[in-house]
Amino acid sequence: MRERPEPYDEDRHRWLVPGWAARLSPPRSANGWACAVLGGVAVAVLAIVSARLAVEHWYVSLPVLAVLWWAADRWCRARWAAEQARRARLADRSWTIGELDAMSWLDFEFAVRDLMRRDGVAAEHVGKPGDFSGDVVGFDPVLGETWMVQAKHYGPKTKVGSQDVQRVAGAARPVYQAGLTLVVTTNVYTKPARDFAAMAGMHLIDRASLTDWAARGLHLYDVLGIAPQNHRRAA
Description:
alpha/beta, 10 helices
């Protein structure tokens, strides 16, 4: 694997931006801009009033500021710890989306296996003729379940269809005793495939999510939106 900047320049300051702020987008209509301006004015007025009250009632505001400072410090420390873990994952295993596109289908399966291992899953490559749609299988000690993973190395004109996803769901338990299923593709999924995966409780990684996972170093749980503690309680 070739050497690359650590961390990627475009992701260097991602840890400083809260998740909700990263999802904000500019208004797309006149009404949206009007609401944004009114909201900004309201926030400014509230800030001025709060500042005046804080000065007048300093014996209340100082303890509040101390608590806010402590909370901000804890937040920054937690975000920085997560960023250090992301950089460690990048240093261990990472591929750009272009590198993944250039791989053979077999090399892509091994890359998926290595990404699973990077994120703590004891993954093994099992893909071969007659594999019943299982390319990578591995036990996840945090979730206490076995993953069955299918890797679809498709070009830009080929989408993963519902039948592909259904085969994975049908083989997971009886063949691999897997309670967690994942399909990873270099392209995207059809709507029927996504609908079936949602009904069956399956996990999907498309091209955009694969970029987050393989190239930006996000953990598998973050890419899939998995909360390990909640999963254990549900299990």
